[in-house]
Each structure stands twice: as structure tokens, then as C-alpha cells.
Amino acid sequence: MAAPVKQVRAMIQLGSPRISGGSRSRYIRADDDVVYNVKFQQNDQGRRAIVNDFIASSIATAIGIPTPDVALVYVDEMFLEANPRIRDLYDTPVRSE
């Protein structure tokens, strides 16, 4: 049986505002003091990109391939106010699939 997915809260955006690539992900330090490469639902590749990454990571972990930690990162209103470029991701409509 798979372990439950860890849930954390976004605290600080790190480094450059955007990592290259179509998913427009960001490096964010969470309240567990781990830095995550966070992908948002509103990205150029659609929601499936996030689901595909999760499934691939779960399969890799299950067969013993080392993978980075996976977590659901909660981004609250205070974080969005402090990081207006990330706020822009929330104001972008989700691509239909």
C-alpha cells in the first residue's frame, strides 16, 4: 500500500522567479524546510503534466528508483500577496484537455 502524500505549506519563493520549461514551475521552500519544484494547475502543459509527474514518481519509488520527495504544497493568500508573479499563475485560465 502506498504511503499518503505529504502535505506542506509554501513559505518562501527561492531563486529566479521561473524555471525554464512549459510547466512554469517555481522553487519554493515549504514549512518542512524542504525546497520543492512546485508546479501549478494553471500551466502551459495543463493539469495532466502534474498528474503524469505524480504517477511516474510513484511508480519509480515503488520499483526502487530514487526520486525527489513528492508533496502537495498549499499556497495561501498571504504567500500569493508576497509573490505577485505566482499570483499571475492563478489568474491564468486552466488549459482544457
Question: How would you explain this protein's 3D organization?
Answer:
Helices cover about 30% and strands about 20% of the residues. The chain is of the alpha+beta class and about 100 residues long. It has a four-stranded mixed sheet with strand order 3-2-1-4, with no helix packed on it. Strand 2 and strand 3 (about 35-40) form a beta hairpin. The longest helix has 16 residues, at about 45-60. The model has no long low-confidence stretch (mean pLDDT about 80).
Structural class: alpha+beta
Per DSSP, the total helix count is: 3
Q: What is the radius of gyration?
A: 14 Å
Span between termini: 30 Å
Instruction: Please describe the biggest sheet, giving its number of strands, its sense, and whether it closes into a barrel.
Output: 4 strands, mixed
Run of helices and strands: EEEHEHH
Mean pLDDT: 78
Percentage of residues in helical conformation:
25-40%
Which strand-content bin applies to the residues?
15-25%
Q: How would you describe the shape?
A: globular
Total number of strands: 4
Strand order of the largest sheet: 3-2-1-4
Low-confidence blocks of residues: none
